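User: Please predict the structure of the protein below. I'd like the answer in structure-token form so I can feed it into my own downstream comparison script.

Assistant: Understood. Taking the following sequence of 105 residues as input:
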Amino acid sequence: MVWDLGAYELLGGSVAEGSLKLELHGHKLKGEWHLFRIRSDEKKPVWLVVKSGRPAKAITPRQEDRSVLSGRTLAQIARDPERQWKGRRPATRGRPGPRSGAICR
């Protein structure tokens, strides 16, 4: 499911510093957000995301469960195997890997 889609502006910081300040212009997420890299035992970096500036507008249960691209719910997507994305990499067991681009659920 593509949970949100939009653009962002970098307001400050850098990945190298482990601190980013962004302005999100998504369909669901908008406004200023801070991302902080935190210490972890994980092999890959762990980032904490914090809303800053004005409070975020509440996301309704209907918005939460719908794809921003198709408007379908997660259950509807699961029932339609022909429309499910199939990657080129073989399926792996365990935790899913990182996702880039749109915010996926």
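That's the full token string. The radius of gyration is 16 Å.
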